[in-house]
Amino acid sequence: MNKVPQAIISRPIVSEKGTQLLTENKYLFEVPLKVNKIEIKKAVEELFKVKVESVRTMHARGKSKKWRGRDIGKIPRWKKAIVRLKEGEVIEDLGA
Asked: Which superfamily does CATH assign the domain made up of 5-88 to?
């Protein structure tokens, strides 16, 4: 699949776990459901000009949204990527 890197990396995930992973040189990104680890690696390397050591992915399941005991909607499922950079590499744009 020939995709532009901006379409593969949707956004960085800023959370408590994400900031703890920065000490291990790992970064969290939200990615589309259909992309694979190789595409994620190439996109991060091209966008941020760094070398990626490994990529791990996981699916976050969609949940139903409730209000006063009633189902009023659904939060869509999405995919998360944990990207580990090689020793000495840092993504400056994300405040590491």
From this structure: RRM (RNA recognition motif) domain (3.30.70.330)
Two tokens, residue 11: 């956004």
Q: What angle do CA 82, 85, 90 make, to 5 degrees?
A: 110
Q: Give the dihedral sign, CA 61/64/65/68.
A: negative
Counting Cβ atoms within 10 Å, is residue 27 exposed (0-12), middle (13-18) or buried (19+)?
Answer: buried
3-class state of residue 29 by DSSP: strand
Question: What digits encode the pLDDT tens for the residues 29-69?
Answer: 999 999 999 999 999 999 999 999 999 999 999 999 999 98
